[in-house]
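hi!! sorry for the late reply, been swamped w classes. u asked for the two structures so here they r. pasted raw, havent cleaned anything up. first the sequence of the first protein and right below it the tokens
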Amino acid sequence: TNTGEQNLSPAAVSYLQVFQNGVSCERAITSEINEQMNNYSNEVQPGGSSEACEVFSLTDTCDITVEVSDFLSASGEKDSQVIQLQ
């Protein structure tokens, strides 16, 4: 949800990293694109919401850690979540 006062895209305001086995994963290029992938770079008006995603290449089925922070954050604050893969 865009809680700001101007149109913004998730890609412009967030920095997303994925780690597997302690190593950062590269962003992937796929032949298939869905709505959520497009939404990552689409702008959202103030008060509007959209679901967005980015695709990463994984090396195996070990757990991954997703870290998200503000794109231009001087504080270094971030949210992280461990996701178990099957």
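now the second protein. again sequence first, tokens right under
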Amino acid sequence: MADLPNPPLLTADGDYDFPTQVGEAYLLTLKGTFGGATVTMKTRSDVVAATYDAVTDGAFTADAEVNFRAPSLVTRLTVSGAGGSTAIRVTRVKHVIKGN
């Protein structure tokens, strides 16, 4: 496990974590060259400590934009099958709702 790198570019197999706030909405984008890699989005389990649960429809093999509401304090991206050409840029933006 490692924190999401800065700049957020995924090039190798592994687990990459980033903080989220429970109940907050985010936009996550994955863009670049997957080179055969799969990126799986997971959230930390509140039931079993130190385990992560895969998010339904959260496996990506090509560019993706995902809106989600965080169910835990940590979201994990797991990269598997990365090749020499894998270079996936990750951006995450918290949705901000402005009042009238």
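hope this helps!! also noticed smth abt the second:
The radius of gyration is 14 Å.
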